[in-house]
Amino acid sequence: MTSSQEAKKQELPPTAWAVLGLLSFPGERTGYELKKWADSSLRFFYWSPAISQIYAELRRLEELGYAASARSGPEEARAKRRYAITDAGREALAGWAADTAEAGPPVLKHGLLLRIWLGHLAEPERLRAMVGEHVERTRDELAAVREAMEQASGVPEWAFPALALRWSERQHLAELELAEALLDDLAGLAEAEPAGRPRSGSEPGREADAAGRQGDGDAPTPG
Questions:
Q1: pTM of this prediction?
Q2: CA–CA dist 98, 105 (Å, integer)
Q3: Which of 33, 140, 203, 222 would bridge with 29, disulfide CB 3.0–4.6 Å?
Q4: Exposed (0-12), middle (13-18) or buried (19+): which is 43, by Cβ within 10 Å?
Q5: Which of these, 37, 160, 19, 31, lies nearest to 85 by C-alpha position?
Q6: Which residue, 107, 105, 21, is CA-closest to 57?
Q7: Residue 211 scores a pLDDT above 70
């Protein structure tokens, strides 16, 4: 590997390693097939890269010698380029996967909770509806996870992906439990608030009171 290739190796983003990981299982796959597999596995516990990202990373991996590709022959009506991992790619991927320092802490970016955090600007009914919609989406995702688990069941090569999917099933079940508890919390908050109280902070005297607290450095968290 040249010094230029070594530098590029050090700069590989997680997306590249994820795509290379998809190639590490037996068989050759097209970019479209890799995208379908990412949608039925990676997205449940990480995320699924866009098809444009997949092809960009495939080109990068080929340049590094981590992947190789070949066009299909005349026996197929539509020519396709299939990709496979190389020995160098498998060695590099194994090294990356074994480096626990690269894993980093899990990152949670919960769009619904960001809106709950801003609930003082919203109508209580709308907040409850948003949580209810989230519950339904999570149930749909849980069903998709279980479908993927069933497909992976009994396939020796997919034993470890099946473990990741099982973790994802538990995570979705926990998310459902948290969402149901959040609905209870919202209901309790609504009962505690005086009827007809404005949500926008426009109640007479309330803005001045809030400004006074801000001036005193009052905040919901220390520091």
A1: 0.78
A2: 16
A3: 33
A4: middle
A5: 19
A6: 21
A7: no
82 forms beta bridges with 70
Task: Report the DSSP beta bridge partners of residue 29.
Answer: 83
Contacts with 141 (C-beta within 8 Å, 6 or more apart), sequence order = 44, 172
Could you identify the residue written with the tokens 């803005």?
207
Alpha helices in the chain (DSSP H): 3-10, 14-23, 31-39, 51-64, 87-97, 111-117, 124-152, 159-192, 206-215
Q: How would you label 129-146 residue by residue, b for 16+ Cβ within 10 Å and e otherwise?
A: ebbeebbeebeebbebbe
Residue 78's identity, in one-letter code, is R
Q: What is the dihedral of CA 159, 37, 139, 116, to 10 degrees?
A: 110
What residue type is assigned to position 217 of the chain? G
Cβ atoms of 16 and 61 within 8 Å: the answer is yes
Q: pLDDT tens across 145-180, in order?
A: 999 999 999 899 999 999 999 999 999 999 999 999
Q: Do the beta carbons of residue 29 and residue 37 sit within 8 Å? A: yes
Instruction: Compute the distance between CA of residue 2 and CA of residue 65 in angstroms, rounded to an integer.
Output: 11
